Amino acid sequence: KHAHDHGIVHRDIKPANLLLTVDGNVKLSDFGIAKLFGNSGLTADGGVIGTAEYMAPEQADGRGVTSRSDLYSVGGVLYALLLGRPPFRARSLREMLQLQRFADPEPPIRIDRRIPRALNDLILQLLVKDPSKRIPTALVVSRQLESLLAAMARKDGPSPTDDESAAAAGDDVGGAPRGEPRPAPEIAQQV
Fold first, then answer.
1. Within its chain, how far is the Cα of 19 from the centroid?
2. How confident is the model at residue 176 (pLDDT cuts 50, 70, 90)?
3. Alpha helices, DSSP H only, in 33-137?
4. Helix (H/G/I), strand (E/B), else coil: 83
5. Are 182 and 84 in contact (CB under 8 A)?
6. Distance CA 128, CA 56 (A)
7. Distance between alpha carbon 28 and the CA centroid of its chain, in Å?
8. What is the predicted pLDDT for the residue at 6?
9. Using CA atoms, how far apart are residues 40 and 35, in angstroms rounded to an integer?
10. Strand partners, 27
11. What is the mean pLDDT of residues 21-50?
12. Distance in angstroms (rounded) separating the CA atoms of residues 52 and 62
């Protein structure tokens, strides 16, 4: 939020650029490829810069980046924090850029049913391909996360997604979830 408030787009938000302070705050580091709003999002030769696994579709496509591009990356980081992997896996940079531009990620809740539906929905809203349809600001994301954490605390801790709402969304609620389950509540509290 602070960088965006000062007209800066980071362009490379990824887990390696997030630092956890001793008092539990998260600090964003490595502004080496950041840009001021209004400047070109491309390198001098027209190439694309950033880490492909967390790159927004418009950045992968070589179009201009905005603060909403960073929010897409935040969605990818949240996905990775909860599930232990980024939203997409690819064998090459070209394939990863194509996935970022055109593929929809598997909903986190389908991989681990214990993820709260509200957190699943927030992540998917951040990972929308069209920047104009993403959550508009880091402040809104922050408030939604604070609200989610407060709701989880009121319930005396995180609760798993209820089977009824998962079934209504068409999720597979019978049997074991796909993928290796991760301890989502503990990670969500650190975010």
1. 16
2. very low
3. 57-60, 67-83, 93-102, 108-111, 117-126
4. helix
5. yes
6. 9
7. 14
8. 53
9. 8
10. 19
11. 56
12. 12
Give bridge partners of residue 35 from the DSSP assignment: 9
Hunting for tokens 């591009």 — which residue is that?
Answer: 69
**Residues contacting 98, CB < 8 A, separation 6+:** 90
So which residues are the catalytic ones? 12
The residue type at 167: A
Residue 138 half-sphere exposure toward CB, CA atoms < 13 A: 18
* Two tokens, residue 143: 């408030």
Residue 185's pLDDT is: 39
For residue 10, is pLDDT > 60? Answer: yes
Q: What are phi and psi of 14, to 5 degrees?
A: -155, 165
Q: Confirm if 179 and 106 have CB atoms less than 8 A apart.
A: no
Q: Which two tokens stand for residue 104?
A: 């929809």
- Output the pTM of the full model: 0.70
- Three-state DSSP at 26 gives strand
106 within 8 A of 40, measured Cβ to Cβ:
no
